[in-house]
Amino acid sequence: MPIKVLMGYDGSPAANAAIDVGAQLFPQARLWAAHLWTPPFASTSMRQRLWTGAGRVDEFMAAIEREGEWEADRLTANGVTLARAAGWQAEPLVVRIFGGEGLRFAELADKTDADLVLVGSRGLGGAPAVLGSVSDMVVHYTPRPVLVVPYPLLMADYAALAAGPVMVGYDGSAGAQQAVATAAELFPTRHLLLTNVEDGEDPDDGPDPPHADDARVSRLSVPRAHGTSGRAVADALAGCARSRAAAAVVVGSRGRSAIREILLGSVAMATLHHAYLPILVVPAGA
């Protein structure tokens, strides 16, 4: 059975690139191209154009609603066309909202029972890198694995998508154990590189990772270049991933609070913001 992917699609170059990347990592998946739209009440140009010839306020408001819905449907159809061309089974999912896109998107992940959530990141660049408000909210609040695709990828990183291994940050924690199990499920044909960033402790201490006896799984240890911060660990993971031509990096979160917020932790957050590779964040209990 193909995996089910819920994607946040807004028509941007980053979203279009995320479709291409996702289709290479998860071929023949089933996709919902989800677009959450709000009526364009704040658009001065739209209001001026629609007010001409509108005799009553209710007609004016109805015209705004029609135009907004039509544009949302048109834009999402473009995403579906791209996804189908990439080999996915795709259909549109257009939802009218009044704000709170990140939280509503997390709700859609549960409603569709998605195996994976896919978002593109438009803000990767400069210092520090910024995912963007909606992408950040999706990663923090969605109780499903979330793949964040930076835009643009380097040529070498793009080339690795076709057949590269998948690197999993592994430190023996419960979050890392869940990350390994999820990676094995979502990438059944890829080699998994379980990577421990050395901190002076024996990386072989602690419980064996899931699927440790699988021939597709191997363990690595890499040194931190500088310091003990989450950024140092993220840099080490990213450097190792590129040296091994990895297609993606998988990191686990530390758990969820009572309000279902994913506590990413410094390593996961730093990896998201600084690795500049496709990053799969696996929440606890996913």
In summary, what is this structure?
The chain is built from nine helices and ten strands.
Verbal overview:
The protein has 286 residues and is of the alpha/beta class. It has two domains: 1-152, Rossmann fold; 155-286, Rossmann fold (3-Layer(aba) Sandwich), CATH 3.40.50. It is 40% helix and 21% strand. The chain has nine helices and ten strands. It has helices at residues 13-25, 44-51, 57-85, 101-112, 133-141, 155-159, 174-186, 230-243, 265-274; strands at 4-8, 30-37, 89-96, 116-121, 146-150, 166-169, 192-198, 217-223, 248-252, 279-282. It has a ten-stranded mixed sheet, with helices on both faces. Helix 4 (101-112) packs across helix 5 and helix 8 packs across helix 9. The chain starts with a strand and ends with a strand. Mean pLDDT is 81; it is low at 123-131 and 255-264.
Characteristic key phrases:
elongated, 40% helix, 286 residues, Rossmann fold, ten-stranded mixed sheet, 10 strands, alpha/beta
Largest sheet: 10 strands, mixed
**How many H/I helices?**
9
What name goes with the CATH superfamily of the largest domain?
A: HUPs
The portion of residues forming beta strands comes to 15-25%
> What would CATH call the class of the largest domain?
Alpha Beta
Low-confidence stretches: 123-131, 255-264
Q: Judging from the principal axes of the Cα atoms, what is the shape? A: elongated
The secondary-structure class comes to: alpha/beta
Estimated radius of gyration: 21 Å
Per CATH, the architecture of the largest domain is 3-Layer(aba) Sandwich
**Integer tally of domains:** 2
